[in-house]
Model the fold of this input.
Amino acid sequence: MIHREFLRRATIRVLAAILLLVGSRTQAADPASSVTVLIAYHSVSGNTEKMAQGVAEGAKAVSGTKVIVKRVGDVATDDLLSSDAIIVGSPVYFGNMSGEVKTFFDNWLLKFAVFRDFKMRNKVGGAFATGASISNGKELTMLAILEAMLVNQMIIVGGGGAFGASATTGPDSPGIDEKELTAARELGKRVTEVAIMTKHGSPK
Ligand SMILES: Cc1cc2nc3c(=O)[nH]c(=O)nc-3n(C[C@H](O)[C@H](O)[C@H](O)COP(=O)(O)O)c2cc1C
Done:
């Protein structure tokens, strides 16, 4: 009798262990827990491109994330529609986003037709910028990008800095330093985390 009870309990324990193992494996490889993040940028002298790479590293650090990095001019309608989150980067041109990035957003209506019916609604958005001077438009540029996303009924988030990640690239602080790259990675990670929350719910 005691022997039979022992066997019954041992069987239950083994079955429970198997179920736990199968459950954790399914979760780790579950494609449903992944998101697609599009990083779109404009860059002439490479600074904003370097920040885009940092943003991509941060997004990739979140397991299971699919990351697409493209220049704004190479983005196709399907890139926008298939993404759960979009992070847009621009150099500061006269205190605002560059013409290329503005044209990209204008094309959300004129070319991609995603503005109509709010096809970008509830996707997550973030911004990054590089500018030559410490205070000559980086925050305004990020806000302008976020404004365009708000008009499209996206959910906007910061990361790296309050409004996104930015870097100063002029003679006082040429290029992108490690601190600025860290901010870029933080932005990529935060936007991805929020995209996962909006798509799959927040972790318990
Ligand atoms: C047409 C033009 C206008 C610019 N206007 C500003 C500006 O208003 N404020 C600023 O801080 N930098 C300004 N810059 C500098 C760029 O924003 C800066 O060099 C940036 O890092 C360039 O990015 P990229 O290397 O990705 O092309 C301007 C550069 C250009 C070419």
Observations:
- The helical segments are 2-28, 47-60, 77-81, 99-110, 138-151, 178-200.
- The beta strands are 36-41, 66-71, 85-93, 96-97, 124-131, 155-156, 165-168.
